[in-house]
């Protein structure tokens, strides 16, 4: 029997086959994702943490383990793709800058936003959350693909934007 954190395969309405697994890249075309999720963010500016959190909450709210996502944005900060970077355990997920920035570089993103859920429902960042955000900030600066924000989603629409807690350049 599959656990909630077991890799799975999904086919989107547009026919794009996605393999969802730990550290497996998931990038779908903006049109497919726009149809699948109602265009809540895709093709629009990622103008503010609240809008992005509202888009991601239904995708992550029922996950039994931590899922770390990267949203790729163009020069006008319009989201054009979503990548699942990591699927972890109940309390952690393995995140390395190469998994976050690899899809961004391959698909020509100008910047990235990252987000993950806390299955406990409490969005307060852990020390590991702060450490990984600092590493991603450094890597993004080095690569010329800045990290715009790191959102942590909890229960009932609660979220924390690490942009308000750490020095984002």
Describe this structure in words.
The chain is of the alpha+beta class. It has a single domain (8-164), classed as Cytidine Deaminase, domain 2. Helices cover 28% and strands 24% of the residues. It has 4 helices and 7 strands. It has helices at residues 30-37, 49-60, 97-106, 127-143; strands spanning 8-11, 17-20, 67-73, 79-87, 111-117, 147-153, 159-161. The strands form 2 sheets. It has a 5-stranded mixed beta sheet, with helices on both faces. A hairpin with a 5-residue loop joins strand 1 and strand 2. The longest helix has 17 residues, at 127-143. The chain is globular, with a radius of gyration of 15 Å. The N and C termini lie far apart (46 Å).
List keywords for this structure.
five-stranded mixed sheet; Cytidine Deaminase, domain 2; 24% strand; alpha+beta; single chain; 169 residues; two-stranded antiparallel sheet; 4 helices
CATH superfamily: Cytidine Deaminase, domain 2
Main sheet: strands, sense, barrel: 5 strands, mixed
Question: What's the total helix number?
Answer: 4
CATH structural class: Alpha Beta
- Report the structural category: alpha+beta
Instruction: Please state the CA-atom Rg, rounded to the nearest Å.
Output: 15 Å
CATH architecture: 3-Layer(aba) Sandwich
Overall domain count: 1
The pLDDT mean sits at: 78
> Total number of β-strand segments?
7
Strand-and-helix sequence, N→C?
Answer: EEHHEEHEHEE
Approximately how much helix is present in the residues? 25-40%
Report the principal-axis shape: globular
């Amino acid at each position: 029997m599959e656990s909630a954190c077991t890799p799975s395969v999904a086919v989107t309405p547009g026919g794009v086959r996605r393999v969802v697994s730990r550290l497996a890249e998931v990038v779908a075309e903006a049109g497919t994702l726009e149809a699948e999720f109602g265009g809540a963010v895709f093709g629009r500016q990622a103008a503010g943490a609240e809008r992005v959190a509202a888009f991601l909450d239904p995708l992550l709210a029922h996950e039994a383990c931590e899922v770390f996502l990267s949203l790729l944005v163009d020069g006008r900060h319009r989201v054009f793709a979503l990548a699942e970077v990591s699927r972890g355990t109940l309390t952690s997920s393995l995140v390395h800058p190469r998994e976050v920035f690899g899809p961004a570089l391959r698909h020509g993103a100008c910047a990235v936003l990252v987000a993950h859920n806390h299955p406990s429902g409490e969005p307060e960042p852990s020390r590991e959350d702060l450490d990984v955000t600092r590493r991603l900030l450094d890597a993004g600066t080095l690569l010329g693909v800045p990290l715009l924000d790191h959102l942590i989603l909890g229960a009932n629409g609660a979220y924390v934007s690490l942009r308000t807690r750490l020095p984002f350049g």
